[in-house]
Amino acid sequence: MTEKLSHTPGAAPSRGPRRLIFETGAPESRCVMPPALDVPDVDLGAALGGAVRVEPPVIPHVTEVEIARHYAHLASMNFGVDSGSYPLGSCTMKYNPRVNEDLARLEGFAGLHPYQPEATVQGALELMVGLADALAEVSGLPAVTLQPAAGAHGELTALMCFRAYHRDRGDVRKRVIIPDTAHGTNPATVAMCGYEVTTVPSDERGGVDLDALNSVLGTDVAAVMLTNPNTLGLFDENILEITAAAHGAGALAYCDGANLNAIMGISRPGDMGFDALHVNLHKTFSTPHGGGGPGAGPVCVVSRLAPYLPGPIPHRRTDGSYGLALPERSIGRVRSFYGNFGVLVKAYAYVRALGGEGLREVSEQAVLSANYLKERLRDTYELAYDRTCMHEFVLSGSRQKREHGVRTLDIAKRLLDHGFHPPTVYFPLIVEEALMIEPTETESLEELDRFADAMIAIAEEAKRDPELVKGAPYTTPVRRLDEAGAARNPDLRYRTEG
Questions:
Q1: What is the pLDDT of residues 17-72, one digit of tens each?
Q2: Is residue 47 in some structural domain?
Q3: Domain range for residue 400?
Q4: How far apart are CA 92 and CA 227, in angstroms?
Q5: N or C: which end of the chain has fewer CB within 10 A?
Q6: Distances in whole angstroms, Cα of residue 61 to Cα of each of 18, 113, 239, 494
Q7: Cα 424 to Cα 391: distance, rounded to the nearest angstrom
């Protein structure tokens, strides 16, 4: 193992194990001095009728220095876009301008309360209306709600609007059609709305198989849900035929907006025939994606679905002021208040800073980066679909597995030693040993070359010393974990002795 470690590039090894915060400090240690009690002292046990814990909680007693070092250490163990390239396919993990974070923290935004009188929040309402107008222009869909808190929440919101629309027409629909390349949230959303999932296969070009689609369309289909570009990184060449076929059966067409970063300012889902789209502001519009949130998944719809959108929705009054109104046949609230406002501020700042031409350039650069990497790696790894890709592309580690016994997971782990976050692996499911790579527009040519060089070097290592790759990573704070065991038997609780 010592000899193999000498071949490992990338970050330096960890400084070694650190104690958990529960294992540090002393009973007399303090890092907070609470103010004097200015309300009557109440016996909590008596107030709750004795329904209190018998033993006090195990809370570490640490100094300010110890707690600062604890969180600094945790931060150093994480990998994010500030650490290095994060080419996670279908997730658009790009660098986001810090100035937008500063803008979201301005007191005039961060200090607002959502239930303030409308007259005192005119600036916030104007911003929300401006963002909705921009999203309507980008999507080609005129009506927008900013309430949904994430992409999957936006999917659910749109499908609930679809359901309400069909019910109003007395139209009983039971099924929703999705492709075999769909994001996993799509079938989950379908089931949550009470519909059955019908899956259609992809054709040899990586798009929806039109014959298969037409064979399952019928008067019981409520919607066709697609991602375009899809999770193979391919723009569906038959998209107009697909949405026309859906409408011909009386169904609605839904676009999963996860991959909007590829087409902003170039093509619009509304022009493709879609009736609804969710927009991942936390992927495309300048909110760091990952770490549990916050996100935002506004939904844009055609005019006939506008009455069903969740509200209240900010709007511009005829006198020039701004207010909130509930659509006449609204499905109701889907979130408390009016959406994740801080995320909306960052998205608005991003749009205003770039403008229409800038948003188009974002997409053009993202597509160029993906195609550049695809061409550099096509001879080293198998290329799932030999087409011009959009913002991402899918390679396969099948050759490495077949010839050297090195799996895609091994390649992903070895990338960590080179200082890169791995791409998405084993998805889409229709590609064996899939590696889905999305470089985004924020990486330089030099960084793209470094990533390509690392991938090529790993392929060479797989030939020369496959056990080296299988044992990776070597330079991370922890080595390879039993991921299946951790998922099936998670141990998330700290237990004191005895």
A1: 578 888 888 888 888 888 899 999 988 888 888 777 778 778 888 999 999 999 99
A2: no
A3: 362-487
A4: 14
A5: C
A6: 17, 34, 60, 15
A7: 14
